[in-house]
Amino acid sequence: MIRHIPVKALALLLLSGLITGCATPTPYDYTAFKQSNPASIVVLPPINKSPDIKASYSLLSHVTLPLAEAGYYVLPVALVDETFKQNGLMNADEMHMAPPAKLHEIFGADAALYIEVSEYGSSYKVVTSEVAVTANAKLIDLRNGQLLWAGNARASTAENQNNSGGGLIGLLVTAAVNQIINTLSDRGHEVAGIASQRLLTANTPNGILHGPRAPQPTQTQLAAQ
User: Fold this and answer.
1) pLDDT (tens digit, 9 = 90+) per residue, 33-72?
2) CATH number of 26-205
3) CA triple 205-207-209, angle to 5 deg
């Protein structure tokens, strides 16, 4: 026997679903971040969970710019990496296990940024081919080991692909061509730059906060706000 749902009840269900779908993300709690107020950051080489061996240092080469633009002093990443290796820590997993107090003693930075790359490189899925980079990060106060902030970001070449025309054959040809281009060129490095900007640009929704070296807004900018 088919039971009929009252129109009013159905309307309420649809409305609740619409509200849930449009709900804004829960605001990040920046209390610890603001109390810590870090001025300098040491970035550890990212842990690579993807199959591509280039992922860690490709992303590492991009992170200084958005952090510096956000107003932080970033220790030179190549020098940090070499310092770890001179002290017997040869890979990112070992580096991430170093105690925060020891990192503070060696580098003198207020905070450390720990990054993990979970996706990097090209993938072929019959009718689509994309290069994608996904990373998550956490900022730790090296003076007390407290978590200040955590976030994640993803970037993909599929964001700009238009597969609306050409039918199935066209999609297959386009995907095959894109896969060849993605394989022959290091598009992952380019996409990693976009992902790092999304991950570490200051004052984005639930993103990292501006540091003390960030340029102060002009009176015109304040008036526009």
Assistant:
1) 999 999 999 999 999 999 999 999 999 999 999 999 999 9
2) 3.40.50.10610
3) 115
